[in-house]
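Minutes, project check-in
Item: structure for the 180-residue chain
Input as provided by the requester:
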Amino acid sequence: AIGRNDLAAPHLERTLTLNPEFPGGAFALATVYINLGRAADAEAPLQAALTQNSDHFQARARLGTVFTRTGRFQQAIVEFDRAVQGGTLDEIAEFDWANALAQTGAADQAMVHYQRVLAINPRHAYAHYNLGVMLDRVGRTTEAANHYRVATSIDPNHRAAQKLAKAGPAGPAAQPSTSP
C-alpha cells in the first residue's frame, strides 16, 4: 500500500484496532487521512499520537494542518507555535500555518511562512499565489504581480493567478488559496 493512501487507510485502521499502541500507527493513519482530503478524520488519530508522546512535534504540526483545513485558524496557530518548538516544520505545515495566519488577518506573518514554503519548494504555485495576495494586501503590488506570474508559469491552470497576473493588483478582496 506504499504510495496508495486509499489502500493504506483500511490496513492502518485494522492495525490500530488490534494494537492501539502501535508505534507511529496513529500518526501514519492521520497522515493518510490528510492526504485523502479527510482532514477532520485525522484529528482523533493525531490526538492519540500526542497522548502517546506529547513531544511529537510532527503530530502537533499535522494537528495544525487539520485545524487550518477545518476552519479553526486560531487553534491551528497555537498548534504550529507549539510544534515549531520541537523541530523544523515541513512544506505542508508551513503552508497551512501561513494560510491560518492569512485567514486571521496577519498578513506580515503569513508572508514569512509563504516565503519559508518557497525556500523549501520554489515551485509551489499556491505559495506564490498566496504570497502575491498578501503582498497586494500590504500595498506591494509590483511584487505581488511577480508572484502571480510565477504561479501561472508553474501551474498554467491556476485560474485565480492567471486572472490577477493579467488584471494587476488584487486588492483586499482576493483570498488566499487553501489547496496545496
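Outcome recorded: The chain is about 70% helix and 0% strand.
No further action items on this chain.
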